[in-house]
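[job 4471] stage=fold_predict status=RUNNING
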Amino acid sequence: MSYSAEIFDAADKELENRRMRSETELEKRRKILFARSPRAEEIERIIARTSVAAARAIFGGEDRRERLEALKRQNLALQDELKRIIKGYGFPENYLDLWHKCEKCRDYGYVNGKMCICMKRLLRQISYDRLNSISPLSLSSFDNFSLDYYDTKPLEDSRNSPYKQMSRVLSFCVKYARGFSTSSESLLFQGAPGLGKTHLSLAIARDVIESGFGVIYVSAPSIMNKLNKEAFEYDRRSNDSPTEQLLTECDLLIIDDLGTEFSSRFNVAAIYNIINTRMIVSKPTIISTNLTITELQENYNMRIISRIIGNLRRLEFIGTDIRQQKHTLKKNKPEEASSAQS
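[job 4471] inference complete, writing structure tokens
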């Protein structure tokens, strides 16, 4: 995958910070040990001196082999004594070693000139974070999703009430997020504006990210703008669009507000490619839209519609626009509106 120089710079900076943290943490551990055992500090100084003496012995006279052997025996004896001291205080055997996040590359990102798997993961995660940076992931959770805004009275054309329906939707979303795996089903959140689709999408994203999965949350207009920009920038160099690859490869992709993006042949083709590729590799996708099935059919070709209808489990959001309720509440009781659900 192609990444921008900015992403590589951010990854290099993170690796440098990891190495610095390892050195700082080692120095803290050394101070703790030496405060308890002055002998341990003395041994470390002696070992350092024997290393210098060994280097000098290499260029010595005829007895250099005997001197090197004697220094080696002394060094090994001191190391054994130091290990016993460390063990005696209940510390791990590698207490005085640098502890790296990745022992394979020692947090340099490369092994024998080849990119380490940790570097690949870091580049991908930074890219995810950059795409997610415009989304208020920290502001939405299942805990602050309130059912108080949904009427308990059944709708005129249904026996179902908004409260009952949204209780089911909330319960399903909680179960989905907390049992998420890369083989989870794809979902379609459908309903009028202001009914909690974005809130529950963000809540799922937050929980799944905390479980260690790679999640990208984007709004349809913002991601289409980015893909259009990349298409212009990359068409003269390669056919590779790094953002499109991230969208198709992440563990969970959430596309919010499908149908609000600018309608163009490029956007329709891009949406189809993303949905179709993820469907082929069986990666879960969540799409939220304010459009009805009829309106979706008017905006997109049948290839997209067949994949959305045929492969995504539909969750219907019903009720009265919560934003309008909040506006009314704010006018009547400003002190209560500050805690209202978005």
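[job 4471] summary: The first strand starts at residue 110 and ends at 111.
[job 4471] exit 0
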